[in-house]
Amino acid sequence: MIPEDDWLPISALQHLLFCPRQCALIHVEQAWAENALTAQGRQLHDRAHESGPESRGDLRIVRGLRLHSRSMGLTGQADVVELHAADDGTPPGQRACLPAIDGVWSVVPVEYKRGQPKENDCDRVQLCAQAMCLEEMVGASIPRGALYYGQPRRREGVDLDEPLRELVRDTARRLHELVRSGIVPPAEPSAKCVSCSLAEQCMPKSAGQGRSARNYLKRQIEVAIKSPSPEDAP
Ligand code: SF4
Q1: CB-hemisphere CA count at 13 Å for 155?
Q2: Which of 175, 178, 220, 229 has the fewest Cβ atoms surrounding its Cβ within 10 A?
Q3: DSSP states of 113-140
Q4: Using CA atoms, how far apart are residues 65 and 138, in angstroms rounded to an integer?
Q5: Mutate to test the pocket of ligand 1, among 178, 188, 197, 216 (most ligand atoms within 8 A of CB)
Q6: For each of the chain's 234 residues, which pLDDT tens digit applies?
Q7: Which residue has its alpha carbon closest to ligand 1 atom 5?
Q8: What residues does each domain of the chain span?
Q9: Strand pairing report for 144-150 and 74-85
Q10: Which CATH class is domain 4-186?
Q11: 152 upstream amide cis, omega within 30 of 0
């Protein structure tokens, strides 16, 4: 079990999968910058959390639920958690009894995303981490969740299978190691740098492998020394 003081945000898993340097800049050096993409994403999450709980027949909807996992040392907030009245066909291990709500329920987390479905696992890892937190909190297994994308508006079911769960556990382990180390890895410039909110702080072209800040400064000084001063100009 990981002590509460060392818990890290679930969103950091996405940062690590997107770019280890971005993750360390945010969670080791506490750098954060918002760009148009992150601002739109934040507004979408704020709107999802603002609406109150809802009740529709056999469905209850809870928004902005706080989550945590002691075993993985993660904490966060679910956009939406759907509670479906468990019927006789629901396997016993998937039935949850919840505080302040009568009945037996099966639990489905739903995460809202601003853009389109991605080819990488970032969104599925975040959703699965939420489900694994919920499982620890409610004591029932959650085999499926859903991602809701804004462009085009579409809901996508996600199987929370064992390979995805292992990826979540492994990413959480690597995240804690990275933050404990206190080291910001060198930049590995790639196409993703174009959409990175921290490109300005990162300076990917000058902070890549073998291009430490010290080496960068040395090169700049060498260039300055070699450049003729205006007084030397004919
Ligand atoms: S600019 Fe590129 S290398 Fe730097 S943090 Fe962002 S994604 Fe990573």
Answers
A1: 9
A2: 229
A3: ESSPPPSSSHHHHHHHHHHHHHHHHHSS
A4: 13
A5: 188
A6: 999 999 999 999 999 999 999 999 999 988 766 555 556 666 666 666 666 677 888 899 999 999 999 999 999 999 999 999 988 888 989 988 887 778 889 999 999 988 888 878 999 999 999 999 999 999 999 999 999 998 878 899 999 999 999 999 999 999 999 999 999 999 989 999 998 888 888 888 876 655 555 555 565 566 666 665 555 544
A7: 22
A8: 4-186
A9: unpaired
A10: alpha beta
A11: yes
Give the CA angle between residues 36, 53, 69 to the nearest 5°.
Answer: 70
Residues in the chain, overall count: 234
Backbone angles phi, psi at 172, to 5 degrees: -65, -40
Residue 187 CA: nearest ligand 1 atom is 3
Nearest CA among 207, 135, 129 for reference residue 175: 129
